[in-house]
What we know:
Elements: E1 12-14, E2 17-18, E3 21-22, E4 25-26, H1 27-46, H2 56-75, H3 84-100, H4 113-135, H5 153-165, H6 167-196, H7 201-238
Helix pairs in contact: 1-3, 2-3, 2-7, 3-7, 4-6, 4-7, 6-7
Amino acid sequence: xxxxxxxxxxSPLLKINIRGMDLSFTNSSLAIFVALVVICVxxxxxxxxxxxxxxxxxxxxxxxxTLVADLIDTNVGIDGRHYFHxxxxxxxxxxxxNLVGLIPYMFTFTSHIIATFTIAMIVFLFITSLGIxxxxxxxxxxxxxxxVPKFLLPLLIPVEMISYLSRPVSLSIRLFANMMxxxxxxxxxxxxxxxxxxxxxxxxxxxxxxxxxxxxxxVLQAYIFTILTCVxxxxxxxxx
Length: 240
């Protein structure tokens, strides 16, 4: 059986070395580039003929727009609309990154912890910086909720700080683990098909079902990532 983890190996496609620093263009870099190109192409095609009463392609883009806008309004409020572009960009990048990885022979960069952690850190740094800019030193009150007895603060503040600093870790692990597990399972059943040969109808059927399930997981994980981004954004905008 083929190694189900072989698909996650990062391989250089174009080796670039500048003063001992490896800046090679890898299969992961290609997948990221393809995801960005697909986003641009999809939007260019769907919005080519914009109408007051949208056709299906335009309605699809408006559906994505409305989905993220509703998430921001629900979790952050009207003040969160100023940051729609950032949240929408994160949603699209994670969504299309997940979906591009389902294309045969393509690399799933969201199945690597370093990629998901980088995205999560960008979200974390943006939200933390925003909170400091909006509230200054009052942002520290996020770690000391109102109404808590003062004698509990020495215990509560470290817990709140650890919880806050662990956000990019939990955010990245959730996405990476789900994408890696699903792709590994698909590879395992594909290996069964290769082993059994003509009698591999059941593994083939299971792989078809798993592919459909992975599409749902890809969309769901992008949705969850965006919801959590909005929840964290709420803390930066409104504190508690």
